[in-house]
Amino acid sequence: MSNLESPFVGVIAHHPGPCPVQGHGDAFHQSTVEQGLPATEYFRLSGIQRCAQQAGGLCSFWMGGRLALYQSNNRPLLDDECLAASTEANHELFGGFLGSLHISDPQRVHKRRVVEQVLGSQRFFDGLKPEICRLASAYLLPLQHLPLCMEQLALQWVSHVDSHLPGVLDCRVKTLAQYLEDDRFKAVVSGFFEQASKVISHDAAPVPGQHEALMPFVKDLLLSNFESIAAAPSCNLILGHFVLWGLPFSRQTIEALSLDQALEIGTIIIATYDTTALSLLWSMAYIETSPQIKREIIFAASNDSDQAPHVIDLAVLEALRLGGSNPTALWRRTIKACEIEHAGQRLVIPADTLIWLDRWQANRDPQVFPRPEVFDPGNILVLQKNGDQPHAFCTSLLARNRYDINSFSMLNTRRNPRKCPGRLFSTQMQGLLLRELYGQYAVSSTDIDLSLRRYCAMPKPARPGVMTLRPKEGGRADDQHP
Fold it and tell me: Which domains are seen in the chain, by residue range?
């Protein structure tokens, strides 16, 4: 079959691409790698996005010599069992991390449980709320009146809070915020997910030797914080992994960690703060460029509003929809022939097909969201279903069986077994931080550009902006409703 031939004639639309031999392969590489465009921009400019939208959200194309399917909506398409592990393309970067394991691997269940008992437990998070608020408030105090890069503020603030929370990371001696400023480690720590994302969103080759650079950071962090981690509650994410490995948490075992073990721990540690920080940056950036919504959030934060669903929680989910912390488009590979249903027909997708989800476009589906391109918490309210309780609505949107917004999965697979185990912790953490920020301070900002940054695989604003915090006169109670 030549690259210009449609593999599913009459069932799935096909986009031939600019080259009769490579299809979209060379053009995609030139656009995303050489010109630095986000993957979603290539799909839009090439016509693939339009082709799919006109054909029910799905079309085929050729990426070099490989067959690919492109999806532009959040409909679950196939079973996860048909796909290689989420991080297969750069598994050497993640070691034994649960995302590197096939869905059927028995180890994956135990590894996921270690994360979910902390980052996926509402009861556990509720017990941390006072400490989160205390840490968040204390961190902001010395930053008053200073010009703050919003990207650095989000990253340092989240990593500082996560480092100190009991039972999460417990890195209180040398915090993650300090590692992000340490010349020996800051490049690999801050760029870890950026490099990984280039592989799963640009279809690029992994950087040779990058994974080895993470091991010195992991060992230094564990040894520097040995006493605080050893004294942590047993649910601590780091201690939980040592239990999984059947190893005592000791200096000797830390020194003897294998590369796979160090990468697994490093991935968990960095993922805990990095993805939340990027989502928080989008939340602040959208709020700061939306005057009416900002006024509503200031009022709600300053008056301890008990409205349900809370406007701040809705704003967090709306920023996740529009920005989030996953690359704009991601792919996974089928490992066996699998059946999908499209346009009322069933068909078999062959093994070694690349399944691409344009998350950026799917989260802007005009058939789902009334104002798809606009930051408006009302876009989230339309997702409320009969039976959703107002106080639990935002949490219910995060359930595995909800596909309304894809900001926590690489693909929408049936039953969503790989949906991020830390999604509850991430979204609710952001909500508490925003309450502290807009409840305690008069916030001003400049130089925010919400367009996507070039030469960046992770979705980041072209200009993240500068923020200044000033104490409110009279405290929270003096704020007036807009």
Answer: 1-72+328-363 (no CATH), 73-326+364-404+406-478 (1.10.630.10)
